[in-house]
Amino acid sequence: MAVKAKLENVVKTPLPTKHGEFILHYYSNTLDHKEHIALVKGDVRDQEKVPVRIHSECFTGDVLGSLRCDCGEQLDMALNLINQKGLGVLIYLRQEGRGIGLLKKLQAYNLQDQGMDTVDANLHLGYQADEREYTIAALMLKDLNVKSISLITNNPEKIDGLTELGINVVERIPIEVKANPVNLGYLKTKANKMAHWLFQNPTKTD
Ligand SMILES: Nc1nc2c(ncn2[C@@H]2O[C@H](COP(=O)(O)OP(=O)(O)OP(=O)(O)O)[C@@H](O)[C@H]2O)c(=O)[nH]1
Ligand SMILES: [Zn+2]
């Protein structure tokens, strides 16, 4: 696929975090002009099977600790995993609400409180279940010169999307957090309607 967007690695700076030391790479781009970030651990250049997490922004989960979803815990888990391995990349993509934005996601939450699931709420608002795409993530991985990746995900669409964009995904690392009473229905919908690899270990179901 021909990608016309231009991406520039504008700033790199060390970032010590509670999960360990990373180098933060700030990117600008001509596709959506948003501030996408890569947190890089170790020298990933020309490496095979680099652990990569592509995290989609979730203000409510990542910043506020919302229990409605699994995003915040997945973010912590992914950074810990990459730190432990001493090598890897966490890409923080500004695709809030599976690409529909914060306002629409909050409206979707209200629809879910009226009985819709996370997929039907998106459809009701006039969107696809998932509006995300991964061109910018693929360009960032190309800029970082990783040869092949082990993608940290439960989402088959992410693997397909990146592969179509020319990223060599050679392995998957699961990232399943323990469900809580608030997000259990949401996670079951992701498993049943969005084909996420969740609840596959019988000891993890309710
Ligand atoms: N529209 C909408 N977006 C949501 C909802 N709950 C979480 N999100 C967003 O979903 C995105 C995260 O998607 P997930 O499906 O949890 O995870 P994923 O990144 O596709 O898959 P994994 O790699 O397996 O974690 C973030 O952008 C969240 O803001 C919801 O009910 N509706
Ligand atoms: Zn979330």
- Give me the CATH fold name of the largest domain: Rossmann fold
Tally of alpha and pi helices: 7
Q: Based on helices, strands and strand pairing, what is the structural class?
A: alpha/beta
CATH architecture identity of the largest domain: 3-Layer(aba) Sandwich
Shape: globular
The CATH superfamily of the largest domain appears as GTP cyclohydrolase II
Write the H/E string, N to C.
EEEEHHEHHHEHEH
**Termini separation:** 42 Å
Give the assembly state of these chains. single chain
- Indicate how many domains the architecture comprises: 2
The main pleated sheet reads as:
7 strands, mixed
Radius of gyration: 17 Å
Helix content: 25-40%
Identify the bound ligands.
Answer: guanosine-5'-triphosphate, zinc ion
CATH classification class of the largest domain? Alpha Beta
What is the tally of beta strands? 7
Q: Main sheet: which strands, in order across?
A: 1-2-3-5-4-6-7
Sheet-strand content, in percent, reads 15-25%
Taking pLDDT < 50 over at least 5 consecutive residues as the criterion, the unreliable ranges are none
User: What is the averaged pLDDT score?
Assistant: 94
Architecture overview:
The protein has 206 residues and is of the alpha/beta class. The protein has 2 domains: 7-95 and 133-195, Rossmann fold (3-Layer(aba) Sandwich); 100-131, no CATH class. The protein is 33% helix and 24% strand. It has helices at 59-63, 71-85, 102-113, 118-124, 135-143, 156-164, 184-193, and strands at residues 7-17, 20-29, 36-41, 50-56, 88-93, 149-152, 169-173. It has a 7-stranded mixed beta sheet with strand order 1-2-3-5-4-6-7, sandwiched between helices. A hairpin with a 6-residue loop joins strand 2 and strand 3 (36-41). The radius of gyration is 17 Å and the shape is globular. The termini are far apart. It binds guanosine-5'-triphosphate and zinc ion. The site of guanosine-5'-triphosphate (GTP) has 23 residues, from helix 2, helix 3 and helix 4.
